[in-house]
């Protein structure tokens, strides 16, 4: 059942060409495939092994002859042809039922249209094939379907022919000029319309760009189109990589398991990452679209032109492409502080999701050693930690050094299926650097701890920094070797300015105020000279490595960094450290029922940041956003969700009590009247304003609630509408207790606002998702209310976006209710995992992850969690996907 990286062998046959014919019909689609193959003389395997799943084999012919039944063997997952000749032409006809395919992998139907999703192993649900990424071939695809029902027929590459057939049918023939693995195959057929634009590429060639959507959505494609053009120009400028096709298509589909898919020339997207206008999409949606459109486009080179040898190398394309999309989004903002805000958001994701993953039962290296179901390894570790690993090359080699490495990578491997080692070799060879030890970032799992101790000698004017690294044991890995860690440091003087850096162990090649120290040993000391006064060290600037930094900063040092650090990331980080320290203390105080207190020093530091108009609004918003419940939980030995929530609630209400006037001013100073624009400055202002509005709801008086109510009623864009609605929904229970009357009318107003919102947007699926999400994550939504929402006529488990909106919000973003003391949240979880497993294993497996960290909770909760896990494990017809998760948990 388990597949191991060490067992990799090359395929027994190479494929030259694939010609496919589809007779599309929802109930029964016939697929004919002609493949030309040549034996791989280096392989010891004599047979040809094709994978196939849920297929009906209609016929199979080899070199024009019907294949004798004794010449092959067939089971549930594969078709094996015994020792075929060295050069063969295979004709295979299969029959499939797209309408019955609820897994959304392979060929399926969504809103009466056809779509495919073949990564990682969906192609084998279409026909028998060596469905593995190192088998690359040139594809030609003929699509035939009813012309009225399916007027648009799309596949990869260039359209070379189209025309009429008898019986009201028509056809389109597509040819992809580039060799590709089967996971990049795609087709789309149905009633769709497109926005199209022609652009001129760097070389002077022209390209046709199209964004395909359902008819009612043509007013929501402009941002995706703009993002696509920006992506194309950015990749030309930053990496010298040009679009290699005459035409590039994006298609939006409302039933989709993930964000989007980089099929060659025919990217298929979850509607969530395409459709936007100011009425239905938030600033965050606009940013998400820009980054995912970029991500998929950048795959055209990092993923498609150079692909993965096997799925253990997934991060080769994903880590690299996430890094590229992060850089793209940062460059689109341009300003230094804008870049920092993006960096903060990326690091938040890492800490919120990847650090916990890496400390739990599903912990795996960026390049996993084994898997049961590869879909479970499209993980935050492979993607986001993988991107951090690529970023470390960038930090070590510098801007130009990294570019040289990329150039060499393409020079060596264009058109090939390669490994993470090949990428590392290109980086090493192009720079002349030894990156041998760097491999440990790919082979060792777990979040390294980096401890720092410092010593200042005023007489000698020296400053000493001692780094000690370690990495906790993780699933299947007890012992770890030291990592090669780039640590960017600076020293601040008492005035808050950067001091010149003279390090004995490592010269500063650019004479800048940030030096990248390279830590390679378990313990390492660095000596700085000519340090004229006691400095405040700023360590791990811009989060230069994905580690947990342990440093005994004093509160005063942190306040100094928060006020002055030239590195905006570390400025924010200092604020988070101040907050985290207090949240942990408060949580402990809640547990022993001691009085709760928050010091003035912290509140004044926040006040100063909030009121500092020299700082971007977006940055101030990040500083004022407290560490999440999950962030706090990860810092505790035993997680007590209710205590964390009480501590956080207390901190929020104390902040509001002291900063009410400042928050009101921030609210008023950051209104964005006029035409909506998703630019960084307006986005930042709305974010800060809506954060202030949310804080102000802690003020138990109706005036601030009315402010939210009125913003909700008068909002001119979705960001302000949902921002206000969220503030109101979360105020519902917060105003309880002390002000009974206010609570009553507030609850009425909330119910009214929710109803109004639903009525205004019931035609907009993506907005209704937001409506469910808001309620799933609201502190006032308990299990009983959840069961009611699950029965809402607009709710369905079979649409992944809808399922995620309500259920994932509850299980992952509503900790105090999900972890209800009676275990009812877990019981609900088990029911839903089991139900989803029968519909869509991939989505079910994602939900199954919500109990990953069960060992860290209080014993009473652990018992309920185990019972729920066992209930799922014991249920019938469990998919590999879910089985792997619950077994490992
Ligand atoms: N390669 C796609 C992306 O990074 C993700 C597709 C994953 N799909 C899946 N079923 N595992 O954008
Ligand atoms: Zn990707």
Describe this structure in words.
- This protein has 25 helices and 32 strands.
- It has 889 residues and is α+β, with helices and mostly antiparallel strands.
- The strands form eight sheets. Strands 2, 3, 5, 6, 9, 12, 14, 15 and 16 form a nine-stranded mixed β-sheet that branches.
- Helix 4 (336-359) crosses helix 5, helix 10 (600-611) runs parallel beside helix 13 and helix 15 runs antiparallel to helix 16.
- The two termini are 17 Å apart.
- The model has no long low-confidence stretch (mean pLDDT 97).
- The protein binds arginine (ARG) and zinc ion.
- Arginine (ARG) binds at residues 117, 119-120, 257-262, 295-296, 318, 375, 378, 842.
Main sheet attributes: strand count, strand direction, barrel closure: 9 strands, mixed
Question: Proportion of β residues?
Answer: 15-25%
Name the ligand types.
arginine, zinc ion
Which descriptor suits the 3D outline? Answer: globular
How many helical stretches?
Answer: 25
In short:
With 889 residues, the chain is α+β, with helices and mostly antiparallel strands. 42% of the residues lie in helices and 20% in strands. Helix 18 runs parallel beside helix 20.
Topology diagram in text:
Elements: E1 3-4, E2 13-23, E3 29-39, E4 48-51, E5 56-62, E6 65-66, E7 72-74, E8 78-81, E9 87-96, E10 106-110, E11 113-117, E12 136-146, E13 152-155, E14 158-164, E15 169-175, E16 180-181, E17 187-190, E18 193-200, E19 206-213, H1 222-239, E20 247-253, E21 260-261, E22 266-270, H2 283-298, E23 307-308, H3 314-333, H4 336-359, E24 370-371, H5 380-413, E25 417-418, H6 420-431, H7 440-443, E26 449-457, E27 462-470, E28 485-492, E29 515-519, E30 523-528, E31 536-539, E32 548-551, H8 555-564, H9 568-591, H10 600-611, H11 617-624, H12 629-634, H13 641-669, H14 680-696, H15 702-714, H16 718-734, H17 740-761, H18 765-777, H19 783-790, H20 800-813, H21 815-818, H22 824-839, H23 841-848, H24 859-874, H25 880-888
Parallel strand pairs: 2-12, 19-20, 20-22, 23-25, 26-32
Antiparallel strand pairs: 1-24, 2-3, 3-9, 4-8, 5-6, 5-9, 7-8, 10-11, 11-17, 12-15, 12-16, 13-17, 14-15, 18-19, 21-22, 26-27, 27-30, 28-29, 28-31
Helix pairs in contact: 1-2, 2-3, 3-4, 3-5, 4-5, 5-6, 8-9, 9-11, 9-13, 10-13, 11-14, 13-14, 14-16, 15-16, 15-17, 16-17, 17-18, 18-20, 22-23, 22-24, 23-25, 24-25
The structure holds arginine and zinc ion.
Residues 117, 119-120, 257-262, 295-296, 318, 375, 378, 842 line the site of arginine.
